[in-house]
Write a structure and sequence with these properties.
Number of helices: 15
Structural class: alpha/beta
Oligomer: single chain
Number of domains: 2
Radius of gyration: 25 Å
CATH class of the largest domain: Alpha Beta
Largest sheet: 10 strands, mixed
Length: about 450
């Protein structure tokens, strides 16, 4: 689960109410973090920067845990602890504590336990300078819960010039900063240290590997789902989406286009009148947008696609052409997959101000439009009108090439056609798309990505 700062506090308070005291939680967090740092340090010197709050308390605990194992540990604490739990943790540290003026320590592993989640104001100049100096003086960098200077719920940097880290150890639960840009790009590898937090009702979820059922022994192509892909002025994008859809589980993918040119032999292409072919009662889902164009003909194709009483996925040009009026009569789910520019266009169309974090914007659009919104990018958020929210753990930067969005659209649409509930279909498609990139060589094309979708699907069976 992914928690806001407020949800994390409430979850900790609920745990304390059952008899677990704050020091025990701090002990679990610090000792759990120490296990990761011990392996990373491998006997080399560790410098721990402790702040005045409970994040600093975690730092004292992990420092003592490392010392007891025989580690070479230095603690730097420019500020005295302000919470009772942090004060107790400091009293249990049996080593020297360096002050700010003495903080010229060099070592191999630097641990940032200055400020964790809940920070709402920028670091003061002296604290920022110390943080920057210590990260430059150490070969490896670890952040406890969050790197200092990041806003927990939005992932925004509160100061310019914040350092990056090799490892971030999330304590108790994931926070939105762990999955949202620009924060998530500064954290290196991310690992979760459990402290006994119970599931939180209404919490966002991390998109993980889905469990996808194999076709039954009696399956046929229509039982596995017929996906109708509506082509347009630029046929290549619709072909890419169709190829991805073929590999993501749908039993039958049919492309409605003006020509069969450049289409593979195993892709069915219908060049008939769109208004007639989309009345096929066997359609399980419709995909419209990739390569659609933005002229009058494109608007007509979009309207026809939205008239089909099956789930529809809207991407690319369809998102720019979409208006609230076109969705007014829809009673069947719609999934939209906007990148940042398309998200802005949709916010304007639905009279939204576009303020807040990416998660807040996606939820606002989902509620206002009634669509499942997949706000894609280096950080991808899936939001539903009922408030459900899921986030991707991070995207392969090699996905930043033309056509990969068409592949994502085809992958999600294929899961829709397979009969998966729309929010879950969106999450499955996002995971398959990201995992397919792992199967590709570096600097891959969108076509190569589409060809890797079946390998990603196989990992889920």
């Amino acid at each position: 689960m992914i928690l806001t700062a407020a949800q994390m506090r409430e979850a900790e308070e609920a745990l304390i109410a059952t008899g677990t005291d704050v020091h025990e939680l701090m002990k679990r967090a610090g000792e759990g973090a120490a296990q990761w740092i011990w392996r990373m340090a491998a006997g080399r010197r560790v410098t721990v920067l402790c702040g005045p709050g409970n994040n600093g308390g975690d730092g004292y605990v992990l420092a003592e845990a490392l010392r007891q194992r025989g580690g070479d540990v230095v603690v730097i604490a420019p500020l005295v602890p302000k919470t009772e739990a942090a004060q107790r943790a400091r009293s249990l540290w049996h080593g020297e504590i360096l002050q700010n003026a003495d903080a010229t320590a060099h070592g191999d592993v630097f641990v940032d336990a200055l400020f964790g989640s809940g920070l709402s104001r920028p670091l003061e100049a002296e604290a920022l300078a110390l943080l920057q100096a210590l990260t430059e003086q150490h070969r490896h960098r670890v952040a406890i819960d969050l790197p200092s200077g990041l806003q927990t719920d939005t992932g925004m940097a509160l100061n310019p010039g914040l350092p990056s880290y090799d490892l971030t150890l999330a304590l108790g639960g994931w926070k939105f900063a762990h999955v949202l840009m620009p924060a998530c790009a500064m954290m290196g590898e991310k690992r979760l240290v459990p402290i006994g937090i119970a599931p939180v009702d209404g919490a966002a979820t991390m998109i993980g590997r889905p469990k996808i059922a194999r076709p039954g022994a009696d399956a046929h192509k229509y039982m596995r789902g017929l996906l109708a892909v509506v082509g347009g002025a630029m046929p290549g994008a619709a072909i890419l989406a169709s190829l991805a859809a073929q590999g993501a589980g749908a039993g039958y993918v049919k492309l409605f286009a003006d020509s069969k040119r450049n289409c593979p032999a195993d892709l069915v292409v219908d060049t008939g009148d769109l208004a007639e072919v989309l009345v096929d009662h066997r359609n399980a889902a419709v995909l419209v947008g990739p390569g659609l164009g933005r002229d009058a003909a494109a608007r007509e194709r979009l309207a026809v696609a939205l008239a089909d009483p099956v789930p529809v996925l809207l991407d690319a040009d369809a998102l720019v052409l979409l208006s609230p009026r076109l969705l007014a009569e829809r009673e069947v789910p719609v999934v939209a997959t906007p990148h940042e520019g398309e998200l802005v266009a949709l916010e304007r169309a639905f009279d939204l101000d576009g303020s807040g974090s990416k998660t807040a914007r996606a939820l606002a659009l989902a509620r206002e439009s009634g669509m499942i919104v997949v706000a894609k990018g280096p950080d991808t958020v899936v939001a539903a009108p009922d408030g459900r929210l899921a986030c991707s753990a991070g995207a392969n930067p090699w996905l930043s090439t033309a056509g990969t969005g068409d592949v994502l659209a085809g992958t999600i649409a294929s899961r829709l056609a397979s009969g998966v509930e729309p929010f879950e279909a969106a999450c499955q498609g996002v995971w398959l798309h990201g995992d397919a990139a792992r199967h590709c060589r570096l600097a891959f094309t969108a076509g190569q990505l589409a060809q890797a979708i079946p390998a990603a699907l196989a990992a889920c069976l």
